[in-house]
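Sample 3 of the quickstart, ligand nicotinamide-adenine-dinucleotide:
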Amino acid sequence: MQVIRFGIIGCGLMGREFASAAARWCHLTDIAARPEIVAVCNRTAAKMDWFTAHFPTIRQATTDYRELLANDEVDAVYCAVPHNLHEETYCAVIESGKHLFGEKPFGIDRAAYDAIAACLRHHPRVFTRCCSQFPFFPGVQRIGSMIEQGAFGRIIEVEAGFLHSSDLNPAKPINWKRQIKTNGEYGVMGDLGMHICHVPLRAGWRPRNVRAILSNIVTVRPDGKGGMAPCETWDNATLLCEAEDAAGERFPLTLKTQRIAPGETNTWYLRILGTQAAAEFTTRRPTLLRLLEYQNGRQDWRELDLGYETAFPTITGGIFEFGFGDAILQMWASYVDELHRGAPRGRFSGTATVEEVGLSHQLFTAALRSQREQATVPVV
Ligand SMILES: NC(=O)c1ccc[n+]([C@@H]2O[C@H](COP(=O)([O-])OP(=O)(O)OC[C@H]3O[C@@H](n4cnc5c(N)ncnc54)[C@H](O)[C@@H]3O)[C@@H](O)[C@H]2O)c1
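Result:
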């Protein structure tokens, strides 16, 4: 088994998710490489205590990412830092020659993304991907196979969304994700947008134009020091796009990202209507895939109760349920496996490519312009 020695920059919510996935690597039954976390970096030292307490393989804990990048024992880096630091840290990782698994939106804005992509062109041997775990839910894997087989026929309409309500409470104090200087002008699109763009982009569906309606619903929040602070980022975004498939056929693609969606905890969904079949999946009912295949002139929706059908085989019994932590493990298996083998196992079992992230930046930049001009604008 090849060991890939990882450093983590950013030991917050997502840094811990990766470490936990690495700790249960034995769950995977058919993989020839494994990650070993040997170094961690976080701006505030205390956040690294959980890592050093649970991972005896960690030999370096530092508050300066440059020290981690100078460490010859580190082969690859997972970077999970606030968006304003993506350009600086991702470019530094790439220039150090270490492989990079970066978090979305992969640059606070399009200029930052362009700088990272330019840096990569000078270091083509660095393997770089962007996190995207939702395609690994079994229901989405099935939809991916259907897309590959052309089972939908001509696409009539696609809807994708990611809705949560973590910002419904106006008394929730402000944090970096609610401020333009750290989260970016994209607001909720930067946080949730790549998650819903990934499958449509992997399918080869390209948004050609967009009319965006963006809302800032809670405009001030407690600053945590007794006062109030402006909460400037877009809470909710609805993008109505005209998309084009590989054959040049156009169809409506509606993309919704919302931080204030009453009743939703963390719902990712995808609905595809085609001339030969239709499919619906939502993480609200993670074992259920709804399918409609037009046969014999009938239009019957079928409900498939999916078990643990994963891109990367595991020890879990086939009838058991799949969840968020499983999707994270599958995503990490995909990154490590592709780094080891040099190619993804399947079209829909790969993490987001830098080119796909670039297309998402084109879309979100056009969406901001659409909102400003109150008009439909081209995605270029
Ligand atoms: N894939 C997903 O489902 C998912 C979910 C949430 C967040 N994210 C993404 O992950 C990234 C991080 O988000 P998070 O929720 O983990 O944030 P977080 O605030 O929980 O963690 C970020 C960490 O970075 C540290 N940090 C800040 N500046 C630093 C620096 N200069 N050097 C080293 N460490 C520094 C902070 O101290 C903090 O511990 C973002 O890009 C976000 O969009 C992805």
